Amino acid sequence: MSRVRLWILAVAAIGIGYGVLKVGGGVQRVRGERDRLETVAANLEAERADLDRLEAELVAEEEGLERSEARLVELANWIKSVELRYPRGIPSTVYGEYEATVDRYNQGIDDYNAAATRYQSLQSDYVARVDSFNARVSEAQADAEDLRDVRALLKEKK
Prior knowledge:
It is a single chain. With 158 residues, the protein is an all-alpha fold. The protein contains 3 helices and no strands.
């Protein structure tokens, strides 16, 4: 409920002066709004736990990417060292291992790119969900502040 709407409700309930019945109705509305805010808070807590899980998943994905990158650097360095050691051509005694390492390196690049794409998608989803969560928290905080204002007005007029 917007701040203006709650303010109008409070002023109407107090200003019209229909006695206990109207004030009682205002109290009932305040209780209903409090219950709604408690439900919103519980939902936000559940969302926060889900965001924590998603954040842990992002951290694990990032660590996996770092390990993959380190392994790719090792493979690239080994390939480069073989190529530098044999500038006129890799001997057949080394070529099988060289070829297998190049294949592992190429497969590692494909795997790394797929993992990086997955990570970017998870990260985009995480950022969007955090932004949405933060907006809902701000809205709930504003609603709670409005509720405190209305409750104070109702107490003053009793």
